[in-house]
Structure formats: structure tokens, C-alpha cells
Design goal:
Blueprint (H helix, E strand, L loop, with lengths): L1 E4 L4 E4 L15 E6 L5 E5 L4 E4 L5 E4 L11 E6 L4 E6 L2 E6 L4 E2 L16 E6 L5 E5 L2 E6 L4 E4 L8 E6 L3 E6 L4 E5 L4 E5 L13 E6 L5 E5 L4 E5 L4 E5 L14 E6 L5 E5 L4 E5 L4 E5 L13 E6 L5 E5 L4 E4 L9 E3 L14 E6 L5 E5 L4 E4 L20 H9 L8
Antiparallel strand pairs: 1-2, 3-4, 4-5, 5-6, 7-8, 8-9, 9-10, 11-12, 12-13, 13-14, 15-16, 16-17, 17-18, 19-20, 20-21, 21-22, 23-24, 24-25, 25-26, 27-28, 28-29, 29-30, 31-32, 32-33
């Protein structure tokens, strides 16, 4: 992890040091969340849960020293009561961030129900229902009853994503397409993959996204993007199998987001980014490194738009990219994270990006720890190989000089 200090104008790199119990417990970070007190929580792949203490140190809660159920954490969510929901590969733990303690198993809703179950995702809908997607189906937290129960589906399926529209719950599955639950009718319908025009193209649904106009974007693992229009109940497909200009070169879709200008950005695993201009209805393909057709840059893991409308792009092996708000695609800039001290083992693979309440951007890496950037950066502060606190190299320094109002997770 790297942290930029706006007073001292230095970066600090936070990573696992086996000799330092106050260091980050693992260099593989899966999840990040901020609690109601503004503290950052880090879910790791095998190192348990870490809390950043703002003095360059971490407090680690794991299976050895706490009631954490499992050390591989996949999902984090802090609710309005300050309870941190910790979804692991072996069940659920709850941590009270006000009292600084784990809830006892008997006081943890659904502890027995979710015991041993791989938790993938959370989703809180507009009616305050809290949904939990797992490898063994869907669960619902009933706050009034204080319990978590299985939400019966037509079949037990591994769930990858959950979203909702006006009166329906959308559940994206690993191999069974999409299940939709109608709250008014209290019934399920099944959107199966047929490959026929106007229908779902592929059964492996990795991501679901509802845009501001109510359209549902469906990202699949192998079939590209399907766009569902509730007004017509028809689907339009964008994939590498079609001939439409700018559609994804690779049909393995990682993530989709809608920017403030209404454009839809689609990240693929091996096919770069495709951008839909809503005004023209045209796609444009974004090659992150046109000079190298074999570059890992085309494997995009995550997209995030910050509070100012700037876009951040995390890639597999090629670090982070930045596009300033209001500028065209041609203004995309690469942040050369490979050149930062400590980014050695995996060469700059960004798993996740998160902005906290202070507008600090946290970047979670695969094997290279955790970085952060914060507004207030100034120019001409370069890496000194004899000074471990000055972690900027000259390439990063030039990038910072050209964007003098920044600083930036997982």
C-alpha cells in the first residue's frame, strides 16, 4: 500500500512485513470498506481483516486473535448501525465498529445458516432489503426479525451479481443465466441463455448494472454484453461475435459503469474498454496501449469514477490509468505503477479502486499491497533510492506534475 502525505509531500508504501505485526497482513487485497467513523477496512486473501490506523500502522483481526470466521474475505459492507458485514469464503462474521468487537456467534444473524458458505456479494435495494449472494444461492437479511434466511429460488445456483429495478430483483448466476423475482406477484421467472436474437446470449452472468434510464446491462463471461430494455422486454447484444464498431474485442466482461455524462464504459478481460456514447448511440473501442497489441493492458479489472468525475481504470499487470473529467478518450494517462518501489512481484495488477469520505483514492493490488493517492499533490517530488519514504520515481513525478490537484484503492 502506498499513502501520499499532503503535508510532507511523500509516498509511503504499506505491505506485509513478516517481522512487523503492525504491517498489512497480506499483500493480496480483495475488499475495501469505510466505516461510519471514516476508518478504512481491508479484506485480504488469507490475512484476515485489517484496519488502517492512520499512523502508518494496521490492526489485524484474524482467526488466531479474534472471532473472525475465516481469513479469506471476499465482501465488506458497513451498515447504518456501524456493523461491518464480513463475507468470507467460509461464512459470515459481523464486527461492531463502535464497540470494537465481533458479535458472538449466537448474536450474528444467519451464522449457522451461512456457516461454511462462500459469500460473493452484497446488495441493498431501494426498500432497504439486504441481499447476500453466495455460491449456494441467495439469502435475505430481515432486520425486523434479526435473522438471515435462504430466499428460495427455483434451483440452487452460484450467484455472481444482484441488482434491482422498480419491482423486480435480478440475480445473475454462474451458469444458469438470470433469475428475476417479482415482488408484487411473489414469483420467479427465468431468463435462460438461448443465443436467439432479442434474448440472453450466454448463461454465465458476471455483472449486472442498472443505468439512470432504467436499462439493465448484463455482463457475461463469454457472451459479451446484453442490454435489456424493460419497455420492450427485448435484449440487444454487443460482443466480439458481432460486427458493430467498437464493441468488446473480448466477450468476457468484467464491469460496466455509467459516467456522469451518460456514457457507458464496458471493461473486458482481454479486450480493453468499449465506450458507448449515448447521444450518438455509437461505440468506440479504447485500446489502452495501441503500440503493443499483446499488452496486458487490455485486461481491465475495475473502473471507478471519483467525486469530480475523473475516471480510474485498473488493469491486470499494467497498473492504473486516469482520464480527467471533461476530457476526451485521447487524454487518457497511464500511471506507471510498475516503477514504484515495492511493485515487483506481480507488476502492477489492480484488483479494486475505492474513494473514501476524504476523497482519498485507495488502490488494492494483487500481491503488491495497498496504495493511496490524495488531493493536494504538487510537482517535482521524485524518488530518492536512498530514502525509503520518498517512493515516487521520475515517471510518477511527471504524472503528478501534470495533474496538480490529486491524490488516490484495492
Amino acid at each position: 500500500m502506498n499513502l501520499f502525505n499532503r503535508e510532507t509531500l511523500t509516498f509511503s508504501h504499506f505491505y506485509n512485513d513478516p517481522e512487523d505485526p503492525d504491517s498489512l497482513s497480506s499483500n493480496q487485497v480483495f475488499a475495501l470498506e469505510e466505516d461510519r467513523r471514516g476508518r478504512l477496512w481491508v479484506g485480504t486473501a488469507g490475512g484476515g481483516l485489517c484496519r488502517y490506523e492512520r499512523e502508518g500502522k494496521f490492526t489485524t483481526l484474524d482467526e488466531r486473535n479474534s472471532a473472525l470466521i475465516h481469513n479469506r474475505i471476499r465482501a465488506l459492507f458497513c451498515d447504518e448501525d456501524g456493523i461491518l458485514w464480513i463475507g468470507t469464503e467460509k461464512g459470515l462474521s459481523l464486527y461492531d465498529t463502535s464497540r470494537e468487537e465481533f458479535l458472538e456467534k449466537d448474536d450474528t444473524p444467519g451464522a449457522a445458516t451461512l456457516e461454511g458458505i462462500f459469500i460473493r456479494c452484497y446488495m441493498k435495494d431501494r426498500d432497504e432489503r439486504f441481499w447476500i449472494g453466495t455460491e449456494q444461492g441467495l439469502f435475505l437479511y430481515d432486520k425486523s426479525e434479526g435473522n438471515i434466511l435462504p430466499f428460495t429460488m427455483p434451483e440452487t445456483v452460484a450467484i455472481r451479481s444482484v441488482t434491482s429495478d422498480n419491482n423486480r430483483l435480478w440475480v445473475g448466476t454462474e451458469r444458469s443465466g438470470i433469475y428475476l423475482y417479482d415482488f408484487s406477484q411473489k414469483s420467479w421467472s427465468h431468463m435462460e441463455a438461448s443465443g436467439n436474437p432479442g434474448e440472453l446470449t450466454y448463461g454465465k452472468v458476471r455483472s449486472l448494472y442498472r443505468d439512470h434510464s432504467g436499462l439493465i446491462w448484463i455482463g457475461t463471461r463469454g457472451g459479451g454484453v446484453d442490454l435489456y430494455n424493460p419497455a420492450t422486454a427485448l435484449i440487444q447484444t454487443y460482443s466480439s461475435r458481432t460486427t458493430a464498431p467498437g464493441t468488446p474485442k473480448n466477450s468476457n466482461i468484467r464491469q460496466m459503469i455509467e459516467r456522469r455524462d451518460g456514457s457507458i464504459w464496458i471493461a473486458s478481460d482481454g479486450g480493453g474498454i468499449s465506450v458507448l456514447d449515448r447521444a450518438s448511440g455509437q461505440f468506440r473501442f479504447l485500446d489502452l496501449d495501441p503500440r503493443d497489441s499483446e499488452s496486458d493492458n487490455d485486461q481491465v479489472y475495475t473502473l471507478m469514477e471519483d467525486h469530480k468525475g475523473n475516471l480510474w481504470i485498473g488493469t491486470d499487470g499494467s497498473g492504473l490509468y486516469f482520464l480527467e473529467a471533461g476530457r476526451g478518450i485521447e487524454a487518457l494517462e497511464r500511471i506507471p505503477m510498475r516503477d514504484l518501489p515495492g511493485v515487483e512481484k506481480y507488476g502492477g495488477t489492480v484488483w479494486a479502486i475505492f474513494e473514501d469520505h476524504e476523497n482519498t483514492l485507495w488502490i488494492g493490488m494483487e500481491g503488491d499491497g495497498l496504495f493511496s493517492l490524495k488531493e493536494g499533490i504538487r510537482q517535482n517530488y521524485f524518488h530518492d533510492p536512498d530514502n525509503s519514504t520518498a517512493a515516487l520515481d521520475r515517471n510518477m513525478g511527471r504524472w503528478i506534475e501534470s495533474f496538480s490537484e490529486r491524490n488516490w484503492n484495492l
